[in-house]
Amino acid sequence: MLMTTGQIEAGTTQSTLHGTFIVTGAASGLGLAIAQAIAGAGGTPVGFDVKSSGDDFEQELVDVSDTKAVEEKVRAVVDRHPDLKGVVANAGIDACGRFLDVASDAWERVIRVNLIGTAAVVRATLPKLIENRGRVVTVASTLGLRAVSDATAYCASKFGVVGFTRALSTELAGQVGVTTLIPGGMHTHFFDGRDEKYKPAPDAKLNRPEYVAQAAVFALAQPEGCDIKELLITPSTESSWP
To answer: How far from the centroid of its chain's Cα atoms is residue 8's Cα?
Structure first.
């Protein structure tokens, strides 16, 4: 069946999901689009974020860089939803600027949220995902494959996510499906508050997060024994790849 743009906007999908799926960074942007796409595919999303999106799916307020807090929230979700089938580790932040100009606490927080936070939520969900033969999707970036100036924290964190996920996929082969989602630039609030030189140009061709969300659902919906190891999805004119 051919999917129209209108169907994508309405949150429908060609893939079908069953069970519960934790999505981090679900209050806005790609995370919110993924949670909505999971619901549209028949799954039950549970959002993790430091704030609420205002949507009607279940949401837990948590800072993913706080490993103990993540563990407590995951336990609570599993108690309510023993059918946990997947996690999408999407939460991410940035601290743009020359390495010596970015304060050390801001630089290190990018690593804690983007990399340590990813590992924390995966570690906490993994026992149930192994039991339920579930799936992990981590969200990296084209800047996890290609380095650019003034993005040392972000590149370090996303290169780390790529390496972590590749190793985890090898480790869990045959037990849990593991996918690295590698998106290019998107129209989200991720660029808000930046110096103008670190924002996309007004005429930049960026993807809509709804389109990238469909790729995440596609990975989550694969039949047992079939893994999408990596999914790179960008605007056709993406400048940060290859």
So the answer is: 19
Which residues, at least 6 apart from 56, have a Cβ–Cβ distance to it below 8 Å? none
Q: How far apart are CA 176 and CA 168, in angstroms?
A: 9
Supply the pLDDT for residue 238.
82
Active-site residue among 27, 88, 135, 154? 154
Q: What is the DSSP string of 48-66?
A: EESS--SSSSEEEE--TT-
Residue 227 has what pLDDT?
96
Question: What's the CATH architecture for 18-233?
Answer: 3-Layer(aba) Sandwich (3.40)
Low-confidence ranges of the chain (pLDDT < 50): 1-13
Read off the pTM: 0.90
Residue with tokens 């799954």: 43
Q: How far is the C-alpha of 99 from the C-alpha of 169, rounded, in Å?
A: 32
Give the alpha-carbon dihedral of 16, 17, 22, 26, to 10 degrees: 20
CA distance 53 to 60: 11
For position 114, what pLDDT does the model report?
A: 98
Token pair, residue 177, equals 């499906």
Please provide the distance, in angstroms rounded to a whole number, between the alpha carbons at the two ends of the chain. Answer: 31
pLDDT at 204: 74
- Looking at residue 194, its pLDDT comes to 65
154 is annotated as an active-site residue? yes
* pLDDT the model gives residue 5: 37
Q: Which two tokens stand for residue 6?
A: 């209108």
Domain coordinates of the chain in residue numbers? 18-233
pLDDT at 10: 41
How many angstroms separate the Cα of 176 from the Cα of each of 76, 129, 133, 184? 21, 7, 6, 26
